[in-house]
């Protein structure tokens, strides 16, 4: 966990030394400045988050302390500032607080008092930072701004999403699990004329028929055992907005029939009620199943399929857009670094190489989970391959590849792939493969791999 960094600005060397020693004993990081000009230069050259608090004398030889305070708060509006002075008056205290100071202490100050004020200020600042982060995450959740991509393949998908959002047509989003179908549904809603109304979603696969029906249609009091109050369903709550039906391919035939009626008649009857309610809803449905095949085999209603599938958006899996792996990983790394207050600068080259060589069967969702774990386990400021839980997973064979091949062939291809991805670094390759260096050398000889810079023995191998 990062320690707080405190800046001290005072023209008295004795005060600077006293505070530096006191704060460093409490494991704070400390920077000291003898005048306002050097402090302001430091603030101008730094970035948000590189300082957690400022202790500043109100009287300095080069410029008025209140002027330094005003300029410091202009540069860093969220930086807590505590003003120190040996000339404590009510007027100067009020003036300092009026211009953004957190608190005001007079010299000489007991160490218990100064430490108590600092701890309180840092705790308050931490709460405010967490609040700002939560607000940012809520904003990102409620809008499509967190759709991260650089690949042309996904750009085409996103441009189609924006194009169809302007219409009021129902949309079917297809794609493997974890490809971001709900994000696309959100992008449709927030770029449509319905964005002022609610965007609601439900995962149809995790609920029983009875519970799914109750959640969608709502119920009246006494409709079934346990229905002690009347409850609105998502259809009523989403009136005027968008309802996202995730995993629509898992809905039973009975619920399919009821959904079809809602789409056709723009009305529904809550469970246990006798009167219908009118609604105006745009439906976005998603599935990782081959819905056309489900229709052909009688498991999904053809009329509902065509009602939902006015426009299709097909999301490519992450392995088909490798250009997006690094920006997505960076996005998730920053997200979880902020959440647990760790400072991580980026990825080691071997970590990036490993991520690019992996097939990501769980797609973007798996990448996010991997990044969360990596941020938690990383000890330094760079994520390395050692904290990524993907190095020993076998890449999946392409779905269209139905060849029957020997285990020896698979082993040979996999070892060669790992060697190439690590730049023929034997120790790293052995670690990724989960075998000893001696076993790897034997396999290299057995399969006749040509190792760059090595001719017949390990003598010329810098990794030997």
From TrEMBL:
GO terms for cellular component: cytoplasm. It is found in: Cytoplasm. Residues 147-376 form the Sigma-54 factor interaction domain. Keywords: Activator, ATP-binding, Cytoplasm, DNA-binding, Nitrogen fixation, Nucleotide-binding, Phosphoprotein, Repressor, Transcription, Transcription regulation, Two-component regulatory system. Residues 5-122 form the Response regulatory domain. The keyword RNA-binding does not apply. The modification 4-aspartylphosphate is found at residue 57. One of its GO terms (molecular function) is sequence-specific DNA binding. PROSITE patterns: RESPONSE_REGULATORY (PS50110), SIGMA54_INTERACT_1 (PS00675), SIGMA54_INTERACT_2 (PS00676), SIGMA54_INTERACT_3 (PS00688), SIGMA54_INTERACT_4 (PS50045). It comes from the Bacteria. This is DNA-binding transcriptional regulator NtrC. It comes from Geobacter pickeringii.
